[in-house]
Design brief:
heterodimer; B: mainly alpha; about 75% helix; transmembrane (chain B); heme transmembrane transporter activity (chain B); transmembrane helix (chain B); Heme exporter protein C (chain B); cytochrome c-type biogenesis (chain B)
């Protein structure tokens, strides 16, 4: 084997090794490093008990309530399968709203309420003007079971 | 008529060719970037709606997304030239890799920086340790590491090979950055950053974004060729043709 071919094999092996490392890292990203937990996972106690973690999902319509002190808000977060009530004192981001995606960081209390210390808004990859967006069913947030397919399967079940 | 492209693998032939190409790449880049900025500011909707109701600040997309694309593309270019240099021992390949690295690092920085300014009004935070943001930050460190390693070793040939190896090892980050938000099952990858898809973008927004990408791409050619010419002169300074060029340019 010529020196050049040896180097080619060497670089090829390096690239293959790097590919294997990337695959391992990606599978770790998907299973072990959970950026946020869905309400379903929280209710199934898959979240770290007393530690700080994040809950992600959609803010349920008509659940956003401002408390007496004028600073604390309460709202429900859902993945369309389970719902977790969230309490937060502080300034909400611009994109925060009912029906929109949200990621809250905090601890879950003994009363089952998630006490958030930080609330971030999450939006999806649709970049459409309001008049077009209204006619499209684009609401989709990662970790949220597709609302349209779910309601379809429900009506199917009701019909049977 | 066929042009023997391998001729340009020699620094002697590439130096004047790059010099002639730079004004074209630079001029076209400037036109495209100005056009994209105009189109992005004046021909696109004032606000978004639906599940992404962003206001005027969404226009950061015209810088942010093209810069992020270039940061990943240029890393691939850097690693490819490094691999070619390692295998074929060609001088110009390593010089190419060297010349591309600073432009890639700048685009990575711009992507992170504009992302922070965008994240504050939309998500509510400048920074969060989300998989996409974190992996892009590691890419920035890889660029810096490549440049630092190369300049830390005095012997140019050893520096070339050591930093080329680092560039290839760093390739691991490219699929991670891509799949950190685009994993096949959307319920598996939980991230703050939205998935990347071009299917649900208003056509004017898409136009400005794509022309800006082309502009950034041509800009990358112009700056890395300019940097490459400097590297060629520096490394070949002992040879006769460089002395001739320097003497001629000193006279004019």
């Amino acid at each position: 084997m010529k020196a050049r071919q040896k180097r080619l094999v060497f670089v090829g092996l390096a690239v293959v090794g790097v590919g294997a490392a990337a695959t391992l890292a990606l599978s770790a990203l998907q299973s072990n490093i959970a950026y946020f937990f869905s309400p379903t996972q929280v209710l199934a106690n898959e979240h770290p008990g007393d530690a700080v973690f994040r809950v992600g999902g959609l803010v349920v319509d008509d659940t956003l309530k401002r408390q007496q002190d004028g600073l604390t808000v309460r709202f429900d977060v859902t993945d369309n399968a389970a719902t977790v009530p969230v309490s937060y004192t502080g300034i909400l981001p611009d994109l925060f709203g009912e029906g929109q995606g949200v990621v809250a960081k905090g601890r879950i209390g003994n009363d089952g309420v998630f006490y958030a210390e930080e609330v971030l808004a999450k939006h999806d990859e649709s970049y459409m003007p309001p008049e077009v967006a209204d006619t499209l069913q684009t609401a989709h947030v990662d970790g949220v079971i597709d609302a349209t397919t779910r309601s379809l399967s429900q009506t199917e079940g009701a019909g049977r | 008529m066929t042009i023997n492209l391998f001729k340009y693998a020699a620094p002697t032939a590439f130096y004047p060719a790059a010099g002639r190409l730079i004004p074209w790449f630079g001029g076209l880049a400037l036109i495209l970037i100005l056009f994209s900025l105009y189109w992005g500011f004046f021909e696109t909707p004032e606000r978004l709606g639906g599940s992404n109701p962003q206001k005027e600040y969404y226009r950061i997309i015209f810088i942010h997304v093209p810069a992020a694309w270039m940061s990943m593309w240029l890393y691939l270019v850097l690693a490819a030239w490094s691999a070619i240099g390692l295998v074929f021992n060609t001088r110009l390949s390593f010089m190419m890799a060297n010349a591309v690295a600073p432009t890639g690092a700048i685009f990575t920085f711009i992507a992170l920086w504009t992302g922070a300014f965008w994240g504050r009004p939309s998500w509510g935070t400048y920074w969060d340790w989300d998989p996409r943001l974190t992996s892009e930050l590691i890419l920035f460190f890889l660029y810096i590491g490549y440049i630092a390693l190369h300049s830390a070793i005095d012997d140019t040939r050893r520096a070339d090979r050591a930093s080329a190896l680092l560039a290839i090892v760093g390739l691991v980050m490219l699929p991670i950055i891509f799949w950190s938000i685009n994993c096949p099952d959307p319920n598996q990858c939980a991230a703050l950053h939205q998935r990347s898809s071009l299917s649900n973008i208003e056509s004017n927004i898409l136009t400005a974004m794509l022309t800006m990408t082309l502009g950034f791409w041509l800009y990358s050619f112009a700056t890395s060729f300019a940097r490459l010419r400097g590297i060629i002169l520096l490394r070949e300074s002992d040879s006769g043709w460089v002395r001739k060029i320097v003497e001629r340019e000193a006279r004019t």
